[in-house]
Fold this protein.
Amino acid sequence: MKEPGVRKLAIILTVAGLCVLFFVAHARAQALVRMEIPSSPNPVGSGARALGMGGAFIAVADDATAASWNPGGLIQLEKPEISAVVSYIYREEDNTFRNNPEASGSFNIDKYNLNYLSAAYPFKAAEHNMIVSLNYQHLFDFNRDWSFKFAHPDPLFVAPVQYKYEQAGALYALGLAYAVEITPDFSAGITLNYWGDFIYENKWKQKYHLKGDVDLGGIPGSFTSDKTEEYSFSGWNANLGFRWKMTEHWTLGGVFKLPFTADVKHSINSVDSTVFPTVPTANSTTTTSLNYDDELDMPMAYGVGLAYRFSDSFTVSGDIYRTHWNDFAYKDSAGNKTSPVSGIAKAASDIDPTTWFRAGAEYLIIGRKFVVPLRAGLFYDPAPAEGSPDEYYGFSLGSGIAYKRWIFDVAYQYRTGDGVSSSMLKAFSQDVSEHIVYTSLIVHF
């Protein structure tokens, strides 16, 4: 039988090894960055009217949210106006861990957001109609909340460990847009976007919590690990757009979003502790604090839209939009490039561009003092993934009322994907159901 002092030393060395193991895992996280975007990774524009039409708005783009869809369409605004959009999202993720079925289950999150703010002012100069607008748009949502138990592969753990993962944050862009009417039927515009802190902080945060019981040669104890990773994001890019009224009924629109490299300040803070109530001298705590100055290459994207106006009351539209996610890359401070989609080396990653399709319609019930719209749309909205994109589909419905200089719109969108997110973890997939409600208020002056 071992002497008490030798036994304590063995426990201390084992605990130290366990803490070193987790410290190495935390340090390696710098080379395994994943940018998990639970919301649609292909945001183009905002507004309840556009959402109600399935997001097929590039060729329509004739209200205060036009700068987010197609700055060339801004020229259609004849009066100064302001707008505000608020969104509500409820997302349910039904997770499947094939190697750890005990961890499988459904998790959900619901959240309100300020989705869009804008102010637009039309004017005339050099015999051409022009307009400027200031816009603030919510683009990417990172919110996620999981909590489950799983059998840890390390034999030191005597029972399933409790694991909790939280991700929160969002990316916003403050845009200054300008559009000019080159001919009565053709206009062009540009939006210069600043991706940084303004009303809200431009960042996302990931929190990991693990707690489990351990046993070392009959000595019971508990192990706890807490880690927080935070990413602060800033950069500049521009969107270009045009609108061409080809005939009395047909309109063509296009938008091009320039790629850019964003600065990312990445911090990692963790605390790992082991407690043995019967051998307190073996208790151990390891603290880690790391900071990096990294970069994120954001891909270019572009889209075209076509709208047909049957009459003043009825319009149909369709959009095609493509994002080059194969150029999406995270570069750490050591110069290593990884795919933010899967966390593996960029050179070994197999990410294809995605192309989404959207179609929608709007019918206006025109009264003497008010207008009530009826809207509907369908869409295919794939997300980037290793090998081939994850497939998401959905539909939307919308309505509202316009009275004098006040316009109120509301829209509902349902988005779903089965067997997606396999790039996130090994032997993992999830079924996603997402419900979004947008409400917009536009005021003319």
About this structure: Residues 6-31 have pLDDT under 50 and may be disordered. The two ends are 89 Å apart (CA to CA).
